[in-house]
Design a protein that fits this description.
This protein is of the alpha/beta class and about 270 residues long. It is about 25% helix and about 20% strand. It has one domain: L-arginine/glycine Amidinotransferase, Chain A.
């Protein structure tokens, strides 16, 4: 079954509040015309490699463009996010309705547990494990709930760097158990867990991390990235990947890049 992606056009995207360090000093400074141009330039090649579906944007939810945070699909169930910040909580009903209308079973987490979807729950291509982050937006209790509900192994990682508040900003599962990650985003135990559980762990530099190099979309053997230094690009190409640079700098003003702009499931 081909990979499906959910994307949301950035018609109403902008930085209208501050809920992460990337947003500081950026309120009202998004060039929406450029954001739309960057989004379309990214959408076009991605839609050639995956079945991309769209959800209509809402003028009251400027961060809805970051569809990765909508929830988690597991088989035919959709687990909606429960956003930590009130500014994003109105997105929950919109995404839930979209998946309900397409026949998904809606499974909600218990009240009081924060969970921000595929921002903090990354399914590797082999789908044998679930890498999950906690520390800023997703509660560790969500990991326990999902482990029991999904009957799958979860590798729980603690995020400690405020710029990397979601797992997908600093970690990306690749093929054959390989992962791309920024070590300084994690505590010591989590770094050990990554190195122990990954077949190969490719660290990125601070420069690459702050250009959202880990926030990449893997489609077949192509990596769609905002940026990659020559060293990182060479390293990834040596692993057999094609690196496709699709700049999304306007979205980084809000704390998200290529992967944040997509939500994937089979």
């Amino acid at each position: 079954m081909p990979l499906k992606l959910l994307m949301c056009p950035p018609d109403y995207f902008g930085v209208e509040y501050i809920i992460n360090p990337w947003m500081e000093g950026q309120v009202g400074k998004v060039d929406r015309a450029l954001a739309i141009k960057q989004w379309r330039s990214f959408y076009q090649p991605v839609s050639q490699k995956a079945n991309v579906e769209l959800i209509y944007p809402n003028r009251h939810t400027p961060d809805m463009v970051f569809t990765a945070n909508c929830g988690l699909v597991w088989n035919q169930s959709f687990i909606p996010s429960r956003f930590k910040n009130p500014e994003r909580q109105s997105e929950e009903a919109l995404f839930t309705q979209w998946f309900r209308e397409r026949g998904f079973k809606i499974v909600s987490l218990p009240e009081g547990i924060a969970f921000e979807g595929a921002g903090d729950a990354l399914v590797p291509p082999d789908k044998e494990t679930l890498w999950m982050g906690h520390g800023f937006r997703t509660d560790a209790e969500a990991h326990l709930f999902l482990s029991e509900m999904l009957k799958t192994r979860i590798i729980s990682l603690r995020l400690i760097h405020p710029h990397f508040y979601h797992l997908d900003t600093c970690f990306c599962p690749l093929h054959n158990g390989t992962v791309l990650y920024y070590p300084d985003a994690f505590d010591e135990i989590s770094n050990h867990m990554i190195r122990h559980n990954a077949t190969k762990a490719i660290p990125v530099s601070k420069e690459d991390a702050f250009k959202m190099a880990c926030n990449t979309v893997l489609l077949e053997d192509t990596l769609f990235m905002n940026s990659a230094s020559p060293i990182l690009k060479k390293s990834l190409e040596a692993e057999g990947y094609t690196v496709c640079i699709q700049e999304v700098s306007e979205f980084i003003k809000a704390g998200g890049a290529n992967r944040c702009l997509t939500f994937s499931w089979h």
